[in-house]
Amino acid sequence: MELRNRFLRHSVAMWLLLQSFVLMTFCFNSATTCPKGCYCAEPEKRLIVRCSDMHLREVPKDIPNNTWKLYLDSNQITSIPRDVFKDLRELEELDLSNNAIQHLETGAFRGLNESLKILNLSHNKLETVNEDVFSRLKASIKLSGNPWFCDCRLQEMIKTVNIKIGLSNDIICATAYPEEHAKKSFLEVAHHVNFCNVHKKTTDVAMLITMFGWFTMVISYLVYYVRQNQEDARRHLEYLKSLPSKQRKSEASSTISTVV
Questions:
Q1: Cα dihedral sign for 20, 21, 23, 24?
Q2: Cα-to-chain-centroid distance, residue 155
Q3: C-alpha–C-alpha distance, residues 156 and 169, integer Å
Q4: At a CB cut-off of 8 Å and minimum separation 6, what does 96 contact?
């Protein structure tokens, strides 16, 4: 009986020790998988990583691969490099708003093509974006509050995401080409103006001016060349007139042949 009680007490102690070990391991793993300074939560066993207002200057490199929602808003991030999110295959929402982002590399959102549903890039410092950056994304994209430079390049980019951003997206032209469209809504201007046609016309005019300049130079050179030869021939003929008659005839024939 005493042996049995001892065994039971020993078994209970081992069970409690095992539970404590499992709990400590779980807590330790949870703490180490969350990026430093960020807050992580797992509602419904889906990981949310919140790194808002943490004075970050770049995207953390230790974001867990199973992250479902990632909040990097209100930081000091200036650019999004290529493949920085490529391993986050379960990411559905990415908030990069209220940063200082000026540049998005082509491939910045590679790996998120199928999973991402919401991408918030509002209130940054984006002036222009290569059209390939968003081309494969299926997410709803927020781009308002950026100092956009409205030109052909922006128009081509908007074409690749126009279904995703929707007409409600407030994209304002901080600057524009032509300049008369600055401070206006891009979507409003785009109903009446094709920025790429304006760019093409400007390019055509520049080419015509360049071609006319070259043509003028060629004509001027030919006129100068002919006049110079005529002047040389006249001087040579005057010189021949001053020579004795026999020598004059032979050299005159040679001069005429040269002029012809």
A1: positive
A2: 13
A3: 16
A4: 72, 73, 77, 80, 119, 120, 121, 124
Q: Is the CB of residue 122 less than 8 Å from the CB of residue 146?
A: yes
Contact predicate 143/165, CB 8 Å: yes
pTM of full prediction above 0.70: no
> d(Cα 5, Cα 231) in Å, to the nearest integer?
131
Give the tens place of pLDDT for each residue, 5-39. Answer: 554 455 544 544 445 443 444 443 444 489 988 99
**How many other C-beta atoms can be found within 10 angstroms of the C-beta atom of residue 188?**
13
Residue 75 phi/psi, 5° resolution?
A: -120, -160
Q: Rounded to a whole number, what is the largest CA-CA distance in the chain?
A: 156
Tokens of 26: 């779980």
C-alpha torsion angle, residues 136, 138, 144, 148 (rounded to 10): 10
- Cα–Cα distance for residue pair 2/102, rounded to 1 Å: 76
Q: Let me know how long the chain is.
A: 260
Residues 205-225 as b/e (b if ≥16 CB within 10 A, e otherwise) read eeeeeeeeeeeeeeeeeeeee
Q: What angle (nearest 5°) sits at the alpha carbon of residue 88, between those of residues 86 and 90?
A: 135
